[in-house]
Amino acid sequence: MNLIVTVFLPLLTAIFAGPLLKGKAYLDPGSGSFILQILIATLVGGLFILKTFWQRVQTFFRSLFSRNKDDQEE
Nearest 5 degrees, angle CA 55-CA 58-CA 47? Predict the structure, then answer.
């Protein structure tokens, strides 16, 4: 099994993926617009999630940076 993973799998990958490397790509304006929409949607979605769970985020950071009562007594 180890021989298959270390020798034959990379060899087969190189043989079958080699011809794919010669392809050419073209991005038309529609593709660029679609990529921009994906990035904006990701940003807006992340902000919505942050807004939704803001109380949990605040509690996490307060507990992370606050001193415990046991630390203050010492």
Answer: 70
Q: What is the mean pLDDT of each run of 10 residues along the chain (74 residues)?
A: 69 72 70 90 92 88 77 53
The number of beta carbons lying within 10 Å of the beta carbon of residue 57 is: 13
DSSP characters over the chain? -HHIIIIIHHHHHHHHHGGGGG------HHHHHHHHHHHHHHHHHHHHHHHHTHHHHHHHHHHHHSPPHHHHH-
Tokens 């939704």 appear where? 52
Two structure tokens written together for 38: 């994906």
Which region, left, alpha or beta, applies to residue 68 given φ > 0 means left and ψ of -120 to 50 means alpha?
beta
